[in-house]
From TrEMBL:
Species in which this protein is naturally found: Graphocephala atropunctata
Gene3D superfamilies named among the record's database cross-references: 2.30.30.140
Protein name in UniProt: Tudor domain-containing protein
All copies of domain Tudor, residue ranges: 148-208
Top-level taxon: Eukaryota
SMART domains: TUDOR
Length: 280
């Protein structure tokens, strides 16, 4: 059997009943030096200044000019109108129509609408448009406002003179005035409207083509001594008793026509007699 030895250290003071004296050593004070924060905020160096500090004066001048003249413009994304109207198509066989001038647009040009003709399809459109107008008047005010108007967009507009809703198309957008310029497609006249007086157009309302169209008087011109305003006023007065029989004489580059009264006389003969209009 092997033996193990253990060594014990005996505290004599405890054996004698004496208390052990505990000597407390003074704690060393830790000196913590508070870090000093920088009081200067981060200031990014302008690009021109950074370049100036690192390149020659000649290059600095060129770079400075480049920064001063470079302009950042917002990207303009062209938009296509959601809905558009189609124009009337005149068959070559259609030569004579009964029409009403709606607005004189130039010295010898005007917008007209058809009262009657021998083309069944066009007469069908006239009937559809009459029925359609009732729906437009009763439903337009309930249609959504147009938030982002686009040139060429089909819409409906509330005409200022009679507060009636008509089919229209946007000719121009006037953001500074919060308004648009519209063209009333079934009558040929234009006006500026605030956005509150236009509405979105139902797709079914665009199925009928535009019922107004532009014509120019055939083989007549005006003298240079007559200004545009005088010509428009006198031509408007001479065509104040519609309807007129319209004869299509040429189709290119636009419809060139003659207008006759019910008696078979040229409707604007009085203007030819006074020299405002002259045959060419």
């Amino acid at each position: 059997m092997s033996m193990h030895y253990a060594t014990y250290m005996i505290d004599c003071n405890k054996l004698n009943g004496e208390e052990e004296e505990i000597i407390e050593e003074p704690q060393q004070e830790l000196s913590v030096q508070e870090s000093v924060k920088s009081i200067s905020a981060f200031k990014p160096v302008p690009v021109k200044q950074e370049l100036t500090d690192n390149i020659s004066s000649r290059v600095v001048s060129e770079i400075t000019d480049w920064f001063d003249t470079f302009n950042f413009a917002p990207i303009s994304v062209p938009q296509e109108p959601e809905l558009k109207y189609k124009g009337l198509i005149f068959p070559d066989t259609l030569v004579e129509l009964l029409v009403q001038p709606t607005i004189i647009t130039g010295k010898t040009t005007m917008s007209v609408i058809i009262i009657n003709c021998d083309d069944a399809e066009i007469m069908g459109y006239i009937s559809e448009k009459t029925d359609l107008q009732e729906h437009i008047q009763s439903e337009s005010e309930l249609m959504p406002l147009i938030v982002n108007p686009v040139k060429g967009m089909a819409c409906v507009g509330c005409y200022t003179e009679d507060d009636v809703w008509y089919r229209a198309t946007i000719l121009d957008v006037l953001p500074q005035q919060n308004a648009v310029s519209v063209f009333y497609v079934d009558y040929g006249n234009t006006e500026k409207l605030p956005l509150q007086r236009i509405r979105k157009c139902k797709e079914e309302w665009t199925k009928v083509p535009m019922m107004s169209f532009f014509v120019t008087l055939w083989k007549v011109t005006t003298g240079p001594e007559f200004d545009l305003e005088s010509c428009i006023t006198m031509l408007t007065n001479s065509l104040a008793s519609p309807p007129y029989t319209m004869i299509i004489e040429a189709r290119e580059p636009c419809l060139q026509v003659e207008l006759f009264t019910a008696d078979g006389e040229i409707a604007y003969q009085s203007l030819i007699d006074v020299g405002l209009l002259a045959n060419i």
